[in-house]
Design brief:
150 residues; alpha+beta; seven-stranded mixed beta sheet; two-stranded antiparallel ribbon; 2 helices; globular
């Protein structure tokens, strides 16, 4: 599977919630959130797997049809307008630094968190953390979701 992503993400989270732990079989996941029109599939095909999100809504995991690698997720908040891209699938995953570490309350007890990245026991209000340009992008997506029911 090959894909191209354009520009910088709206935000990037390192999530340690139990749901992410169970879905990845690991300590959590790092997701970079983009507008879906910034991601283009170049090669390969996706399969979609419906899960239940932490809020109880539909959480769609998109995987490479050949190898099963989870590439991104579509969450109830934005529907197909927004994509939570699994940072580990990028050619250079170290190029993105999380804006926040979330759900530290359920992190494995031996996980340590990096200095300089805000940490939250659960989640946070993106308006209090992100730069204005990225807040505007998120609000625009939320507005489109409300207008079109996407």
């Amino acid at each position: 599977m090959r894909y191209r992503v354009k520009g910088e993400p709206i935000y990037t989270n390192n999530c340690h919630c139990r749901l992410c732990q169970q879905q990845t079989g690991s300590t959590g996941v790092v997701n970079a959130f983009y507008e879906s029109d910034r991601i283009e599939v170049l090669q390969g095909r996706l399969s979609e797997h419906m899960m239940v999100s932490g809020s109880g809504g539909p959480h769609l995991i998109c995987r490479c049809r050949e190898c099963g690698t989870a590439l991104w997720s579509i969450y109830p908040r934005l529907g197909r307008l927004g994509i939570g891209l699994r940072v580990g699938t990028l050619d250079e995953p170290g190029a993105l630094t999380p804006d926040a570490v979330i759900f530290t309350e359920s992190a494995m007890p031996w996980v340590t968190f990096p200095e300089g990245i805000p940490q939250f026991e659960r989640t946070y209000d993106f308006r209090t953390l992100l730069p204005a340009e990225r807040i505007d992008r998120m609000l625009a997506l939320m507005g489109r979701r409300e207008s079109f029911g996407a």
